[in-house]
Design brief:
The protein is of the alpha/beta class. The protein has helices at 16-29, 47-57, 72-82, 102-110, 128-145, 161-164, 177-183, 209-227, 231-259, 269-297, and strands spanning 3-9, 34-40, 61-66, 87-90, 116-120, 157-160, 189-193, 306-310. Strands 7-5-6-4-1-2-3-8 form an eight-stranded mixed beta sheet, with helices on both faces. The longest helix is centred in the last third of the chain and has 29 residues, at 231-259. The two termini are 18 Å apart.
Length: 315
């Protein structure tokens, strides 16, 4: 199979039939073998009922239903595990991503040798209160990650099969899959300007909280990517500097007490700073050792409860 398209859906009953028809039309026009995996992320409307109807009519469709809402990252992670295509695409269910972009992005991966192709919504049909924070977020992410993408948060992305089978996505990490993939060795990352559609049905599912969680996840991905397998390198380095600084301060105060002054060193603020630096350094060392133990024995994070699965082979 050439293409898998993973589509998380949360209360998107109105848009799914139109999206399915659009995808089918594009795949048939370009003679591409494909599967579409709809992941119902605990919707409270008729989304699952619509998916059942669509899968009954189209053998290329599959459906996965979560018992409750786990979030987009969980939906993508389960969809990645279930996918069978040589190239795996992600797409939002709200009709704002255009399936017409898929064939060219597929060519960029299969012919140009890219591992990832990310969409770039150069012209966005979103209010300014979404565009401005997005610009800031993308600038910070580019600076920290070193990946030259303009739109990390674009839902339309294509991945070589090996990429999605090698990464694990949880929390709100879906925005940082290119960073996670790069840390796993998939460094051939490209970008394509894509058409962004105005929302046709419903309302956005993202609120102001995503700006806070997005920043925290960026720090988490950066740390895990650089030090996830060797946290002692991070905590140990800072701990060593802090411990040595504290020791140097105490040695200096001891020498000053013995040879240059008659005042007690315990009355000087620098003394307490030195003690604090030694304590912090020791704590960081202990944290590093504990983090090493956790990193080497961490269990699998895939604890999402799937209620049912239909279509395709439906394991």
């Amino acid at each position: 199979m050439q293409i898998s398209i993973v589509i998380p859906a949360y209360n998107e009953e109105e848009s799914l039939p139109e999206l399915e028809a659009w995808i089918s039309r594009v795949m048939q026009q370009h003679s591409l073998s494909y599967e579409v995996i709809f992941v119902d992320d605990g919707s409270s409307d008729q989304t699952w009922h619509v998916i059942q109807q669509l899968t009954a009519k189209n053998p290329n469709l599959r459906g996965i239903k979560f018992r409750r809402n786990y979030g987009k990252s969980a939906a993508l992670n389960v969809g990645f595990q279930s996918s069978e295509g040589d190239v795996v695409f992600t797409m939002d269910a709200d009709l704002q991503d255009s399936p017409d972009e898929v064939p060219e992005m597929y060519r960029m991966i299969t012919e140009d040798g890219l591992d990832i192709v990310s969409g770039w919504k150069k012209k966005r049909h979103d209010p300014i209160n979404k565009r401005l924070p997005s610009k800031l977020y993308n600038s910070v992410t580019r600076m920290i990650s070193g990946i030259k993408l303009h739109d990390f948060n674009c839902g339309l992305k294509g991945y070589r099969r090996e990429v999605v089978k090698s990464v694990e996505v949880y929390g709100e990490m879906h925005r940082y899959i290119p960073m996670i993939a790069k840390s796993a060795g998939f460094s051939r990352i490209g970008e394509k300007v894509v058409q962004h559609q105005a929302r046709k049905y419903g309302v956005t599912k993202f609120g102001w909280k995503r700006y806070i969680t997005g920043f925290l996840d960026l720090l988490s991905v950066t740390f895990v990517g650089r030090f996830g397998k060797a946290p002692m390198h991070f905590f140990g380095s800072i701990g060593t500097i802090s411990f040595m600084l504290g020791m140097a301060i105490l040695v200096y105060l001891s020498i000053a007490k013995l040879f240059y002054t008659e005042y007690g060193i315990a009355s000087r603020p620098l003394f307490f700073f030195g003690i604090l630096a030694i304590i912090i350094g020791t704590q960081l060392f202990v944290t590093g050792f504990l983090a090493e133990l956790v990193a080497r024995s961490a269990p699998n994070r895939n604890t999402y409860v799937i209620e049912t699965e239909i279509g395709g082979d439906a394991k």
